[in-house]
Amino acid sequence: MHSQVADLIETLINDEHSPESVNKAISELTPDDVALALESIPLVQRQQAWANIKQANRLDILVEMRGESRQLLLKELDDTEIETLFTDVDAEDLLEITDSLPDRLVDIALNQMDNKQREYYQQGIVYDDDVVGRWIDHDLLIASQSIRTSEALRLLKKETPSYTDMVYLVNRTGRWVGCVKFDKLFKAQGHEPISSLIDEECTFIDAEAELTKAAEQLERSGLVALPVVDKNFILLGRFHAGLAMETWRLEHEAQQMATAGLNEESDLFAPVKRSAATRGIWLGINLLTAFLASAFIGMFEATLQQVVALAVLMPVVASMGGIAGSQTLTLIVRGLALGQITRSNLKSLLSKELKVGGLNGILWAIVIGVVTLWWFENPMLGLVIGLAIIVNIFMAALSGVLIPVLLDKLRIDPALSGSVILTTVTDIAGFVAFLGLGTLLLI
Q1: I need a surface site. Which of 26, 113, 230, 342 has the fewest CB within 10 A?
Q2: How many C-beta atoms lie closer than 10 Å to residue 295's C-beta?
């Protein structure tokens, strides 16, 4: 499939963008593959390609595009084109893209919906975008708890939605009662009440649950879908394996982009000024932390003037601390994301990481100390850098555990901010330890 996307990118860049060539190229691709290809070409060529895509395919492709790419594309369309585009939009698609649409376009889309879809939209928009209640699937098999098995079996003669292996039961007020798996339904007698077939192990997902928590709950259940209910136990819809896989994919991508201070919704070919502004903020934050580290180095200016070798070896101390800290930080961020780290095990985890840091610190202090002795023929300099390495790696282990935990408590994404803070801490700790010991032992 990746080769087909690459072929489409080449077609969109090199061809004359005739409707025939564009639609022939996308005919065998899924909407998300086409969206990926469009995001991989410059804006001018993207707009030309978009103009030649069949109207029936446009909405599905637009929904799969990243937020910034979607905004840049919609910016070039007039109201008539947008009304046509949103003619067949449903609640789930509109909820997917609503954050990247101005209110005016959301109103246009809502006016195209039927009452049922508009109700679904209003039901989902009250939830935050990281909560499962916003992303539920409304295409599910529902039956009253009062019917018999024979009546329930008639439901299965209709088209069965994807990721479906059970019927959800509700009472007269729409409250969820339980689930009945297909295998039990097929084995039961037609006259049996369906309520007698309820699977006691089937649970539900609270609509207020975070998406990642819902995905974990679904995975543990061993089922392909679970019902989603609100605080009054009203059945709102379901959360299925397809949504769970999409949740994990987006979570992984967001964490990868966050480590560089970027947003997963960023467009590859966004305007230069917009991209520069987004990245410039991150560079500014890093600049402030660099000046902070430099200020601590400046406190030992006299020492550096007398022992030039210290300046030569400073990057070694900073690098070792930074790498050791990032290893611990990555481990802790993953543990927080999976819910593995709690108040009860934090002390044990911290103790383990400090022991690892201490062991690695001693080992590499010996190696670096010997190399320094051979290089500069100064035993005391080897001792100074060895001690500084131990201090810095130990500090890196301590910071790698405490910084992400503290950021998580403050509801700040540790994957986004943790690495910057950790690098600053290890740099300052390493420089102060190295230059401080150098001042005491070499001068």
Answers
A1: 342
A2: 10
Q: What is the pLDDT of residues 150-172, one digit of tens each?
A: 888 888 877 788 888 889 999 98
Q: How far apart are CA 102 and CA 362, in angstroms?
A: 58
Cα 100 from chain centroid?
A: 17
Determine if residue 17 is left, alpha or beta; phi over 0 gives left, psi from -120 to 50 gives alpha, anything else beta.
Answer: left
pTM value? 0.62
Tens digits of residue pLDDT in 275-323? 566 666 656 766 687 777 778 777 877 777 767 888 888 888 888 888 8
Separation CA 277–CA 280 (nearest Å): 5
Output the CA–CA distances (angstroms, integers) from residue 35 to 46, 274, 321, in the order listed: 10, 21, 42
The torsion angles phi and psi of 36, rounded to 5 degrees, stand at -60, -40
Calpha distance 169→14 (Å, rounded): 55
Q: How far is CA 202 from CA 142, 158, 176, 197, 207, in A?
A: 15, 24, 12, 12, 16
SS3 65: coil
Q: Are 60 and 94 contacting, i.e. CB atoms less than 8 angstroms apart?
A: no
> Which one, of 127, 130, 124, 60, lies nearest residue 92 by Cα?
124
The reported pLDDT for the residue numbered 24 is 73
More confident residue, 227 or 64: 227
Question: Cα-Cα-Cα-Cα dihedral of 165, 29, 97, 253, to 10°?
Answer: 80
Q: Can you give the pLDDT at residue 1?
A: 47
Are 177 and 198 contacting, i.e. CB atoms less than 8 angstroms apart?
Answer: yes
pLDDT score of 257: 57
| CA-CA-CA-CA torsion sign (97, 98, 103, 107) | positive
Question: Exposed, middle or buried, 158 (CB in 10 Å: 0-12/13-18/19+)?
Answer: exposed
Measured distance CA(275)–CA(282) in Å, rounded: 11
Question: Above pLDDT 90, what percent of the chain?
Answer: 16
